[in-house]
Amino acid sequence: MNFLDKDNAIPLYLQVGSFLRNEILKGTYVDKLPSEHELMDFFQVSRATIRRAIRKLIEEGVLETRQGLGTFISIKSIEEWLGHLSTYFDIVNGMGMKPNIRLLHKGIIKTPQDVLSIFGTAEIYETIRLRLANDMPIVLEKQYYPLEIGQKLSKYDLNNISTYDILENELGITLWEAKQTISAVIPTIEEKKLLKLVDNIPCCALLSTRLVVDMQKEPCEYEKSIYRADMYQFCINLTRRMKK
Predict the structure, then answer these.
(1) What is the arithmetic mean of pLDDT over 22-46?
(2) Would you say the pTM of this structure is higher than 0.70?
(3) Contact 128, 142 (CB under 8 A)
(4) Which is nearest to 209 in space by CA: 175, 182, 178, 176?
(5) pLDDT (tens digit, 9 = 90+) per residue, 102-158?
């Protein structure tokens, strides 16, 4: 079976890398990658192509080489179990990885059309942050707040901190419940750049929107986040209702 399109404008090493990445995420390769000779036979390409594909995946943090032992899988998807409000730090630390959050922008903006129906004001406070795990970009998040809350948030350093912790512990806001939707989207060029996705290879991302309300059911945070679909999984436990 031919797994590569040699007539495609996308270089063969990128096609090989994309295929290997998908196989890793599907669980085909759990610990160690096949040898160079095995991959050459599998893809019917040169050693140089295989080595370039592997080198690219090493640069992306997907693979690592161990002297005299071979090439091993170094990446694992982050799992978020739905059902309760957890912070990014709780989730990533629970996976045994190092979380990091970088602030890219914060300030008052004209309310986007999709946010206007939630808060009903002409202006809104926006933050844009990049979430990382082991220094790899995972999530690009945009958060919107009523001006009253946003102006209080503006006094805090929003790098490497949970906004939930600030809202609850510093501002005294009780985060009561949230409504979340998850769907598939095609990331923009800018989103792919920030998330370090390969620019010339088509891909999908996960779009999560979450509206958090307080005890009075008043909206206090609306979040729109773009997740790397190859690095993040949303999980949920299901039970079957007994028939009467």
Answers:
(1) 86
(2) yes
(3) yes
(4) 182
(5) 999 999 999 999 999 999 999 999 999 999 988 889 999 999 999 999 999 999 999
